[in-house]
Write a structure and sequence with these properties.
With 278 residues, this protein is α/β, with parallel strands linked by helices. It folds into 2 domains: 3-53, no CATH class; 67-274, Rossmann fold (3-Layer(aba) Sandwich), CATH 3.40.50.720. Helix content is 36%, strand content 20%. Helix 2 (32-41) runs antiparallel to helix 3, helix 4 packs parallel to helix 5 and helix 4 packs across helix 10 (232-249). It is globular.
Length: 278
């Protein structure tokens, strides 16, 4: 199954290349996900994860690959989160988004391209992840999240990522996350500013940021509508959200729970604020 290579620090490592894994899929009539699982169980490093090894142990990589993460919204934030988690080695991604790409998405959304215009965002996420890391199981939902379907969409996930663009839907998602007892990683941005917070089921959560969640789903006076969304902030905040997911799954320190991380790219400042109850 494996071969031995030297890593960049000149250490011997048993690895499984994608080419050999693809051969084994045909030989054994199984999926690439199955082959990667067997390799990790045998302490064999899929070659694509070689540069992860000094940050994540092989045990960590196995935990990541056995984890399912839901991302609600596959636009500016969600696109970056999806691709980063796929590259990091999350084994299954649920993507929920009813929209299609248009030209106004090209300035910032990682999954958008001229060729993707008119395609559904959830479907394009599945296609691109299939090219980046075909061992990742993709579960795309080309449907709008509602209070009725949200719990079902995210059930079975270890974490759900809030990559939405309006306050009312964020509260719907938070309530669904509470109902299925999983943490939610919230992110929001406008202009060159953004915020990040993780909400566990027992936490006060988004009311600490938004009060009781007043506001319309798509208001012309919303911060995003007024200030716009240049490419830089979705890239940075999506990275922070993806790292927050990894920290939660691997039980690492530094999760922004009952704290809000505020980021201002214009000033270059990042500040964490402890909230009531934190």
């Amino acid at each position: 199954m494996s071969e031995e290579v030297m890593d960049p620090a000149r250490r011997r490592v048993r690895v499984l290349t994608d080419a050999r894994a693809a051969e084994m899929v045909k030989e054994r009539d199984c999926t690439l996900h199955d082959i990667y699982t067997a390799a990790l169980d045998a302490d064999i490093c899929p070659y694509r994860y070689l540069r992860n090894r000094e940050t994540f142990s092989m045990k960590d990589q196995r935990v990541l690959f056995s984890s399912r993460v839901a991302v609600v919204g596959a636009g500016g934030l969600g696109g970056h989160v999806i691709l980063l988690l796929a590259r990091a080695g999350i084994g299954e991604l649920v993507v929920v988004d009813p929209d299609r790409f248009d030209e106004t998405n090209l300035n910032r959304q990682a999954l958008s391209s001229v060729g993707s215009l008119g395609r559904t965002k959830a479907g394009e996420a599945a296609r691109q992840v299939g090219e980046v890391n075909p061992a990742v199981r993709m579960v795309p939902h080309e449907a709008r999240m509602t209070a009725a379907n949200a719990p079902e969409l995210i059930t079975g996930s270890a974490v759900v990522v809030d990559a939405l663009d309006n306050i009312p839907d964020r509260f719907v998602l938070e309530e669904a996350a509470r109902s299925v007892e999983i943490p939610l990683v919230h992110g929001a941005l406008a202009g060159l500013e953004g915020q990040l917070m993780t909400v566990f089921p027992e936490d006060a959560g988004l009311t600490q940021l938004y009060g009781k969640g007043s506001g319309r789903a798509h208001s012309p006076s919303s911060p995003e509508a007024v200030l716009g969304v240049p490419a830089f902030m979705p890239s940075l905040l999506g990275t922070l959200q993806a790292m927050e997911v990894i920290k939660i799954i691997l039980d690492l320190h530094g999760v922004y729970r009952n704290k809000m991380l505020q980021v201002d790219l214009e000033t270059g400042e990042m500040n964490a604020f402890t909230l009531d109850g934190g």
